[in-house]
Design brief:
Number of helices: 16
Low-confidence stretches: none
Order of helices and strands: HHEHHHHEHEHEHEHEHEEHHHEEEHEEEH
Bound molecules: pyridoxal-5'-phosphate
Structural class: alpha/beta
CATH class of the largest domain: Alpha Beta
Strand order of the largest sheet: 2-8-7-6-5-3-4
CATH topology of the largest domain: Aspartate Aminotransferase, domain 2
CATH architecture of the largest domain: 3-Layer(aba) Sandwich
Mean pLDDT: 93
Strand content: 5-15%
Radius of gyration: 24 Å
Number of domains: 3
Shape: globular
Helix content: 40-55%
Amino acid sequence: MPVGVKVNPNIVEMEYAVRGPIPQRAAELKQQGMATIACNIGNPQALGQQPITFYRQVLRMLEIPAGIERERVLNGLRRRHREVFQHMNDADFVSDYVLDLCDDILSKLETGLGAYTESRGPMFIREAIAQFVDKRDGVTGSNGIPSDPEKIFLTNGASEAAKYIIDMLIADGGDGIMIPIPQYPLYSAAIKKAGGRQVNYYPDEEDGWTLNRTALEEAFTDAVARGTNVKGIVVINPANPTGAILPEQSVRDVIDFAKEHGLVIIADEVYQENLYGATWLSFAKLLENKDVPLFSLHSTSKGFCGECGHRGGYVEVRNPPPIEGSRLSFMEVMYKQASVSLCSNTPGQVLTYLMVQAPKEGSEPYEQFVREREAVLSDLHAKATMIRKALGRMNGVECFGRTGAMYLFPRLNRLPKGTTDFDYCMKLLETTGLCTVNGSGFGQREGTHHLRIAFLPPKTTLEEVLPRWIEFHNAYVAK
Ligand SMILES: Cc1ncc(COP(=O)(O)O)c(C=O)c1O
């Protein structure tokens, strides 16, 4: 028997239900030949969502810059000899707009996609992010506080940004961070790994998962009474797993609460484009001139971009707090942390640049870009509506909150005695192939049961599986 290695127990104990026992069972069933549907994770392209052509054209040309000239020559030939190319579509060519943009990116990157960049990411991308944030929030010369490119870090997805901040905030075992319940388990896992304390707060499910001061104060007071030094609060808006979008008052309540208790806010805003017609306001906008430290996260994985595999993301910082007992500033320590990993991946950085800088209106790729963007978002909305309708036909199921992000989090009010949402999701998987995640994987109020479903599979798949789910459900809860 080999001698055991002692490893970090925090990592051994860490949990991540999104890839937990139910998805693992789904993988086994798939291997045995069952058709499974991966609704356990917000990974749109794994379920058939097509990448946005503009993004991929730019990435493709940047990877092999020698091809840029070739495409330019082709475009020239096509202009002069239309008849030769008449059997080909516009989509077979890369527009001069894209080629010029690639030249521009390469000249600013200086060293191409294969070299390390500045640890925070190249300045021109951080400047573009700052402009995007200001435009989004209606900041003008005389109105609002502009975003500062010096306080932006490009990261390998938003996950890395969240880990950076949590690792910095947890200074000893008594430090805690407030997280919503239910939550995206990146947060519980990152707090656990850093050796900190998870402090739960409870959005009001029946009021559309909104927040109020009472719920926040209760959680805070309780944690302090247990000897926890609460350092920050995580808010996910639009939310994962509930999909809910916070109203303005909830965001304002969090800001006032954080100010009063000297907390930093980690605003996970990766779903800011997944709104389906609802109004959404960023923390940065509503922060106004309040001196509350804010870390706002965004990602290329979600929205209509859906480029999870490319691992693009950023964190934008406002009002970084001073560091106790050090002459170094918060930004300097963050910089040190980023520089240990050298830099985030460059294709992800470029995708982030493209995400914050859509093709200009009237440019060659514009129309196709808008068409593809609208198609992705309207398809997601339609699929959420199909699932909501199906939930309405299931006995004892309620689903609260506005439709946002990529998820629905229905409450299962009527389960057979002695069973849990985990049992339900496992049986649902084994019966229909539909892989969801049990509510307990995200945390939930004691005594309640939920599941999370990502509304990502193609409509045809939903049309086929939803009636089977309704049938399964009504039989299961009748036991
Ligand atoms: C709320 C939330 N934050 C962060 C992430 C991770 O995003 P990324 O792929 O940018 O690391 C996810 C992924 O599902 C998420 O749902």
